[in-house]
Amino acid sequence: MPVIPVAGSERFAESGQPLQTSGPFGDVILHRVSEDITAGLDALTYEVIRHRLVAVTDDMGDAVKRMSGSVVVTDCNDFGTGIMDEAGETVQVGLYNMQLGSALDMAARWTLTNRSANPGIREGDQFLLNDPWVGGGLHQNDVTVLAPLFHDGQLFCWTAAVAHQVDLGGVSPGSWSVDGRDVFWESLPIPPVKIVEEGQLRADTEDMYLRRSRVPRLVGLDLRAKIGANNVAHDRLTALIDTYGPDTVKAVMKKMMNDAEARLKAKLRELPDGTWSSVAHQDGGRSGDREIHKIVVAMTKDGERLTFDFTGTDLQVEGIINCTYAGLRGGILPVMLTMLCPEMSWSPGGVFRCMDIISEPGTINNCTFPAGIGKASVNSAWATQNAVSETVAEMLITHPEFGRSAMSVCCGTWDLTLLSGVDQRGSGFATMICDPTAGGLGARVDNDGVDTGGAHCIPMGRTADVEINEFNFPMLYLWRREEVDSGGPGRWRGGVGASSCFIPHDSPVGEVHLVVSANGKAVPQAAGLSGAYPAATQWDVLVRDAGVREQFAAGKIPRSLEQLGGRTQVVPPHLETDLTPGDVYFTHWQGGGGIGDPLHREPERVAKDVGEGKVSAHAAHAVYGVVLADEGRADPEATETLRRQLSRRRVGLEPEQSPIDSGARR
Amino acid sequence: MPYVIGIDTGGTFTDAFAADQHNRLATAKTPSTPPNFADGFLDAIDGLAGDLGTDPNELLANTEYIVHGTTSTLNSLVTGDVARVGFLTTRGHADSIAIMNMEGRYAGLGSDEIQHMARTSKPPALVPCGRIAEIDERIDHKGAVIVPLDEDGVRESVRALLADDVEAIAVSLLWSFHSPAHEQRVRELIHEEAPGLYVALSSEVSPRIREYSRSVTTLMNTQVGPRLGAYLEPLQARLRERGFTGGLMVMQGSGGCVSAADAPGRAITTIGSVLTGGVVGCTRMAEALETGKVISTDMGGTTFLVGLVVDGKPVATTSTVLNQYAISTPTVDVHTIGAGGGAIAWLDTAGNLKVGPRSAGASPGPACYGDGGWEPTVTDADLVLGIINPDNFFGGRKKLRTQLAREAIDKVIATPLSMSVDDAAAAIYAIQNAQTADLVRKVVVNSGQDPREFTLYAYGGAGPMHCANYAADLGVNEVVVPLGATAAVFSAYGLAASDIILTAERSQPAPMPVDPAAVNAVYAELEAELDARLTKQGLRFSTVTYQREADIRYTMQMAEVSTPVPGGKLAAEHIGHIGRDFEDRYEAVYGKGTGFPDAGLQLITYRVRAVGTLPITPTLPDHARSTGDPIPSSEREVFLDVRVGRQRAQIYDYRALKAGHRVMGPAVVEAPTTTVALPPGTAGTVDRLGNLVIRYRTETEEH
Amino acid sequence: MIIDFNLCTDENGAVVCRHCETTIGDSRSSPMNKALRHARPSVDAGPGIHADPALFVDRGIMLRQVSCPGCFTLLRTEIVPAEEPSYREWSLR
Questions:
Q1: End-to-end CA distance of chain A, in Å?
Q2: Chain A closest CA to B575's CA: distance in Å?
Q3: Which has the least CB within 10 A, A293, B2, B198, B456?
Q4: Considering only CA atoms, which of A458, A450, A433 is closest in space to residue A486?
Q5: Is the dihedral of CA B317, B322, B328, B331 positive or negative?
């Protein structure tokens, strides 16, 4: 079916550009501060207030985490917090999901422009939205609560909390509808609506919002968590304004962004001018799709500016993997912050001023309404991040100091496993299994990537304990373990990913519903740098009618897929099915890419990796060219011979005929 | 006649305090003697005896018990001098301690470090993979046995570990906190192979849901237990040789102590042993002064420690982070930042002035020590500002060189920022105070309290120079600087005044309302367990109380809120009360309207704390009363307030101050162990115990 | 200046192998034009390729490697659809 253009939907496509007009915005008066007050700030006041503002986003995060009831928030840290100035520029984001800190400014500007006249923006109001064309989050599950802060009748600044909600309706439980062709198959986006009016939670708006969810109580708890986080922030900011005066506090906000801009520009000036380009592939845009969809980026660094040019990227697809402009920015900002700005204040408002984005609306990572975006955050936004991360890392490793902040591509995408049904207490449930938060990180210039170290966009991710998952959901794990050969081979190895293998357990209805969506099965997604290999492909396996229960009864716990018995089915990128009590699900997510030629890795390190189960003996031989002797030690001479043969084979030459020949050359 | 003694062994000094029931007090401060800390312990006893004018053996013979704060456990873990341990866990889950729930890459790091993602790593493995064995066995969330224990497999694994020369074995199986039978059987099997081997079970060390931290806690306990035993046993023997017949107690991180015989089996509980003495000291002092809520701040050379006392009890937490590993053991909640007197002031690449977290430590120390330190520190700023008297630092025992401090501040801060040295020093002082206030506020607010209801105690060498400023920022009522008899050995005083506290807990997650019969059964078991352990301490108690609590959360939340539970047999209406109490506490912490009963409540963990009060409680002697007004010893220019700048201030020698004396800011009080800064607008009063109590004068008082 | 683990540029902007000093190209116009290029099916990349890509997609997937002509050090490894040009390129200004 052709995508039907929706007239009038352009109104919701926020441009990502700073506020173009000075108003009027209904009866809202913006609190502004003059340049000279900003310029005249003394170092002392600046540092004290800056410290407080950072602490506010941190306190907001604590509040969201403590109050939320969703493991996705509490365990994976899949949420974001931020403070924006009166015009919506982001002053500071919390250290949570950086994707979610990258479009809060868009949401604030859209709300200011479109809601100030009707229904009006007043003291004590908060707005709820989950429309990724407007901004805020990256897909509909990311719900933002945006709160304007007034001082003396003027709109002083905005705060926002955004978090992933486990289910907001749509065809499939969890709102990841793998058969979806456009946004109408998914949870319908909500543009900014007034959820709190002059301090009161609006019952009608809340009901309209929660009515769509399969787990309204959890989503309702999270709504309060976000409102609570904004309240915490407003208390702290008001105290700060009372102490130092509104102009001084605002001047600090402006200076934080100016500083981030100035420092990033200074850093860019020290790097060489040039262009680095890359590509990211996603296999399968929806269930049954056998196409590969690419995102292409050419990053040009010229003086103190970066341009990300996505020309050549595929057109948006009928499926669930597209992302809006918010997602595109969400693919860039985490890389900019962690690799280019690790030692400065995370003030996206300043960082965005150092870069230009060239992208055609209607492409897979800048899609137009009503393209499907249900999985935007972990598909096209994540793939954008992979490609951008490669280009930025390549630029950085030309510099001896800045290169230390670079990583190869981290865990290539999110291995979505969504379970739903009836839990062991007889209640309905739907949840994302957050184990893949422990992806492998990319290799570094002087070290291996961190094994099961996380995902690039969430510096502080977390997985739930097995016991917590088994307590909350009707499942029983056979194992959760780091996986051999999952890290990208290189001079420095990418961090390994891991796998979980579980059975439905103790649901009163027996079966459990399963939604799987995971790319990178045909094309690995965490690329290496400087000649290194990418991390392993994603790999999910469903085993029907396995003999697990019989083995349990015989006192044995299966240790591998081979020991499970039953009928094995390699799972395609997108699948929705039921798990019956006799079935087993195995989900194996990705590691990080390597750096440098694996034949240059010290043989002893490879031998150690084999001993610790990070690398198989087979890969040690075939990819690293290391011959292991007795007791697992590397045999130096045989290794050198093998490495010479492998390096010839890699360029298409026959192996040298005689090992004696090579001995003579040495 | 019988004495009680507190000995706090820190990295640098061993502090000692002794008291009898008739207000006879003695204090001693002697150098610690690493690695043989027992020598310093005995030196401190000698010091106490000297102070009392008696013979050490006679003092020991007359001592009912000694409470000891030891670095042994923390030291073993930090230096890696731990027992060679084997680990047995459920098949399929050995990697749990390597995956570390992923959080191990950043747990315990500051946001500056976390932002630099490519520079973060996980800590080294607790056990090499060769000494971990997986066992076929499985229990599910209800405690049902899904796979029986493979006893042959256990024996085989144990033999392999023994052949690999392990000194101890840790056992942590899934769901063991719910159903410990498999773990208990594993211990029997281990002891069949190796009688007497040190074995720790996760169901005993930390019977709480969440296998990652339970395994880590059990492993670390197993690593340090044998070492703690190897330290305490000979120490006890040496004390006996000298005639000591009383009890040797070890302070735990929970703020209560445990007998030396019982300590090695639960060694992990002693991890915060040396951090908590100060907070316990504050608790006792607050009792003496009848203060309800206290913020305890200890600012030493390298770190700043914050703890809270509410309603006569230190605020506790149920878990802590060490070396990026999550440990589940109840401890007094002591937060720390690298913002002591040695914290270094520096400029970042954009020219912003920063203070800490790096510290010049004791060596080379601040620039003004003249021991080779070239970077300006907070102490250097304090000196330049005139707060510290260079000739009277630590009672004149350390001479400071103001010129070196000025040069360091000039070179690193003032010149690059085009400021005067005085202004740069003032900026360092102000930033330090603001950061400190931010940390303290975070600690107080996160525990659900309002700082304005608190009294702040400031001790440690550097704290009193800054406390009036950071406390003003918090809006606290008053600031107490403990001086008087205990000033130099405040934490040792805390030890001597402590109770025996034992904790037993068990996770048994269930939706509320939980069946009262189940609740009564769990609490009865926990209390019976504690009763048996209290008897094993071999001590007389004046009273024993049990404090119950339950960790409750709204369904699926990660964090629980500890909620008090009444004693005795509970009925359905009590369970309802507990649920409502949880909701009240929740809203107190997170704000009105944040609770959401529709989400449902879950009770996760039951806990009982047994507090055995010991018969001797040291009472602090009264300070001499004043006769007349205090007389300043001198006057100098001091910078005490950003808004005023440098001004004339009266200088007082603490030794000449008597109870009832009132000193008006701007002023500085120089005591033998510290210096107290009194900014304009404050007044310091010497209380009956000799503490300096700082209050903020109101506008009307000014006129 | 250093380009990456394997490459650097000399004073004339030529791209040179850091291991064997072989000239590979020009950093402004064609940085790697003298490098050796070789492609194989992606499953040759080792055990990290868990399943035949044909299970999931219709296009052929290749392991493409670029190596130094002097010492055969790997300069680039990518696994991509067979008919696609290589988008992984760089140049200095």
A1: 66
A2: 20
A3: B2
A4: A450
A5: negative
Q: How confident is the model at residue B403 (pLDDT cuts 50, 70, 90)?
A: very high
- Closest C-alpha to A498, from A481, A522, A510: A481
A467: nearest CB among B142, B209, B442: B209
Element (H, E) at A161: strand A154-164
Rounded distance, CA A104 to CA A56, Å? 16
A477 vs B: CB within 8 A: yes
Beta bridge partners of A479: A501
**pLDDT tens-digit series, residues A323-371:** 999 999 999 999 999 999 998 889 999 999 999 999 999 999 999 999 9
Q: Name the closest residue on chain A to residue C88, using Cα atoms.
A: A278
CB A467 to CB B142 under 8 A? Answer: no
The last residue of a domain, from among B175, B195, B211: B211
Closest residue in A to B433 (Cα–Cα): A48
Q: Give the count of alpha carbons within 13 A of B2, CB side only.
A: 14
What is the nearest CA distance from A533 to chain C, expressed in angstroms? 6
ipTM more than 0.85?
yes
Same domain, A555 and A623: no
How do A428-432 and A416-422 pair as beta strands?
A: antiparallel
Q: pTM of the predicted model, to two decimals?
A: 0.89
Quote the CA–CA distance of B456 and B307 in Å, as a whole number.
Answer: 10
Closest CA to B562 of B572, B547, B576: B547
Q: What DSSP string describes A11-52?
A: GG----SPP-----BTTB-B----HHHHHT--HHHHHHHHHH
Q: Does B321 touch chain A (CB under 8 A)?
A: no
Residue type, B549: E
pLDDT in tens, A123-139: 999 999 999 999 999 99
Six-digit token pair at A557? Answer: 């716990």
**Model confidence pLDDT, tens digit, residues B455-507:** 999 988 788 999 999 998 888 889 999 988 777 788 888 888 888 888 899 98
Are A551 and A612 part of one and the same domain? Answer: no
Please name the residues between 557 and 576 in chain A that touch chain B, using a CB distance below 8 Å.
557, 559
Residue A569 and residue A527 share a domain = yes
Q: Tell me the pLDDT of chain A averaged across its residues.
A: 94
Q: Measured between alpha carbons, how far is residue B151 from residues A555, A557, B86, B116, B397 in Å? A: 10, 14, 17, 47, 65
Give me the number of domains chain A comprises: 3
- In B360-512, the DSSP E strands lie at 455-459, 478-481, 500-511
Q: Domain of residue B508: give its range.
A: 500-613
Is A483 in contact with A500 (CB distance < 8 Å)? Answer: no
> Which of A539, A564, A596 is the C-terminal boundary of a domain?
A596
DSSP-assigned states of every residue in B560-604: -EEEEE-SS---HHHHHHHHHHHHHHHHHHH-TT---GGG-EEEE
Residue linked to tokens 């950003």: B642
Residues A517 and A559 in one domain: yes
**Res C57 pLDDT > 50:** yes
With 0-12 / 13-18 / 19 or more C-beta atoms within 10 angstroms meaning exposed / middle / buried, residue A102 is buried
For A471, B21, B516, the CA distances from B510, given in Å and listed in that order, are 9, 48, 12
Nearest in space to A248 (alpha carbons), one of A237, A263, A259, A262 = A237
CB B399 within 8 A of CB B388: no
Calpha distance B308→A415 (Å, rounded): 43
Q: Count the domains in chain B.
A: 3
